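Posting this for the archive.
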Amino acid sequence: MSPDQKPPYLLEARQNRTGSHPCTTSRIGNKGQMSQLRDFDVIGMGHALVDLEVEVDQEFLANQDVEKGHRRLVTSKEKTDLHKALGHRSTHRCSGGSVANTVVGMAGLGGSGGFCGKVGLDEEGVFFRKDLEKLDVPLLTRSGPGHTGTCTVMITHDPQRTMMTHLGISADLGPEDVDPKAISRAKYLFVEGYLLPHPRTLEASFKAISVAKENGVKVALAVSDPFVVKKCRDLLWELIEGPVDLLFLNELEGSALTGSDDPLECAREIHGHSTDVALTLGPKGSVLMNQGESSVIQVVPVEAVDTTGAGDMYAAGLLFGLTHGWSWPGAGRLGSHVAAKLISAMGARLLKPLSEEEMAGLAADCD
């Protein structure tokens, strides 16, 4: 199935609009209603990657075939050559992938989550599974034959992160890997946009979204990269107008999707298609849209050391707040707070969880 091919429930939604809301078929259901008791706050779905973070200088980065501050997919040979070039530089290893980082971040705040992503039977796959489990996040898919995906994150002093990603077996995530029972017990399904351009992972995403809609589970989608907009623009609008309840995107992705360079106008345009919006603006904060109302969330000022995973952690804070009864502005401020704590140190994980006093103070300010 290609991004140009629509799954049956999306086609039905397009053909059976009976009123102002595009999601009126029994197959797709309405935007999620979190009315029943749920065992998971969020089930995440995305590429399962082992992150290797390493500090490099500008000269080293200039010798690599990648644009600074961007992400490039590499072959197995290119990954091997890169790791040889890195030599004996000190690296930090952790389970990663954008949505996996978000689910782990939520668990660190006291939330509950699981992750659907595919790893190999190799040492890195064993590491990925155990790393999630020690953080109380179950990996909901079986391991398979093949190499576990990796993302080498090269961090320069500015601090900019440049990523070279070998997807490995993570690109083989298919519909048979989806756990309907786990999704049906969640408040949100959070899908990574990187899955949309590839036929097999796209099909898995469609199945997971279908299960979510059949069980009244809300669907959040991260656009993930302007590249995803370029490859899947029409599909993204189908999802926004249909099953997606909450869209996460950054300023570049928003501009690519709507053609507007005004963040507030961009968020309003997307929200006008029945989807709530979380639009991150880097050092300028973020914009939230919910029920016709906009909230501008200010950034928490810190000295940035490593911006790896900032957007993922923001999503963790926002989703934790929304699944625990916080107001939208309050949940946004929590997202901004934990993202700021993250970028003030190296790595895509908080060095230590928020204190009870911090959480209590933020919760008191959530209305």
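Residues 72 and 353 are 31 Å apart (CA to CA). The two ends are 44 Å apart (CA to CA).
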